[in-house]
Specification:
The structure is a single chain. This protein has 213 residues and is an alpha+beta fold. It has a domain at 3-77: 2-Layer Sandwich (S16 Ribosomal Protein, Chain: A). It is 65% helix and 15% strand. The protein has helices spanning 53-61, 68-77, 79-91, 96-169, 181-212, and strands at 3-12, 15-24, 35-41, 48-51, 65-66. Helix 3 (79-91) runs antiparallel to helix 4 (96-169). The N and C termini lie far apart (187 Å).
Length: 213
C-alpha cells in the first residue's frame, strides 16, 4: 500500500494548524490516517514543529513519501539528514560512529541557529515595544502641553475680562487742565508799566502855559 506523510488541516479559518500524519496515498486529505507523527503550527514566530523523530525516521526508511511541505519540516528537524547518513553507513561510506558524530554536530549547529533566531526575535519584539511606549509617551506629553497652553490662555482671558469689569465699575478721576492762567497774569505787569508814559502829557502842557505868560 503506497503511503504518504502529509499535513491534515485543523483549527479556525485564517488560524489553521496541522497534524503531520501517515496516510494511504488514495485517502482524502482530511480523511482517515494510519499514524499521527506530530503537529505543525505556522501561526507562531518561529513556527512550532513538534514531531516524533524516531517514528518519522521509521516511516521514511520504509518508503513513505513526504509531501513538499512535510519534507521541509522533516529536514528542519533533522529526519532527512539522519536518513541520508544511515544510507551512507549502509553503503560503507563511513562508520555508524562517524555518522552519529556528524549528526550530533549538525544538530548542535541547528539548535544554535534556532536559539539565535529566537533571541533575535525576542530582542526585536522588546525594541518594538519600547519604541511604541516612547511614541505613546511623546504623544501624551504633547497633548498635556497643548491642554496646559489652552488653560493658560483661558485663564489670561478670564483675568483680562475681570480687570475690564473692575475698571468699568471704578473709573479713574479726570484731571482739569488750567495752563493759560499764568499767561494772563504775566500780561498784567506790562499794562502797569505803560501808565507813567501817559502822565508825561500834563507836564508838557504846563510848560507851554508858562511860556505864553
Amino acid at each position: 500500500m503506497p503511503t504518504k506523510i502529509r499535513l491534515q488541516r485543523h483549527g479556525k479559518k485564517r488560524y489553521a494548524y496541522y497534524h503531520v500524519v501517515v496516510a494511504d496515498a488514495r485517502a482524502p486529505r482530511d480523511g482517515k490516517f494510519i499514524e499521527k507523527l506530530g503537529t505543525y503550527n505556522p501561526n507562531n514566530n518561529p513556527a512550532t514543529i513538534d514531531i516524533d523523530f524516531e517514528r518519522s525516521l521509521h516511516w521514511v526508511k520504509t518508503g513513505a513519501q513526504p509531501t513538499d511541505t512535510v519534507r521541509a519540516l522533516l529536514s528542519y528537524k533533522g529526519v532527512m539528514h539522519k536518513d541520508h547518513l544511515d544510507r551512507g553507513v549502509l553503503k560503507g561510506a563511513f562508520s555508524q560512529e562517524d555518522a552519529d558524530k556528524k549528526f550530533d554536530a549538525w544538530m548542535t549547529e541547528k539548535e544554535t541557529k534556532v536559539a539565535g533566531k529566537v533571541d533575535g526575535l525576542t530582542k526585536a519584539t522588546a525594541a518594538a515595544e519600547k519604541a511604541k511606549m516612547d511614541a505613546e509617551k511623546e504623544i501624551n506629553a504633547k497633548k498635556a502641553a497643548a491642554v496646559l497652553a489652552k488653560n493658560s490662555e483661558l485663564a489670561a482671558a478670564l483675568e483680562a475680562e475681570a480687570a475690564a469689569k473692575e475698571a468699568a465699575k471704578n473709573p479713574a478721576p479726570v484731571e482739569t487742565v488750567t495752563e493759560e492762567a499764568p499767561a494772563a497774569e504775566a500780561a498784567a505787569p506790562e499794562a502797569k508799566e505803560e501808565a507813567p508814559a501817559k502822565e508825561e502829557a500834563p507836564a508838557a502842557e504846563e510848560k507851554k502855559a508858562e511860556e505864553g505868560k
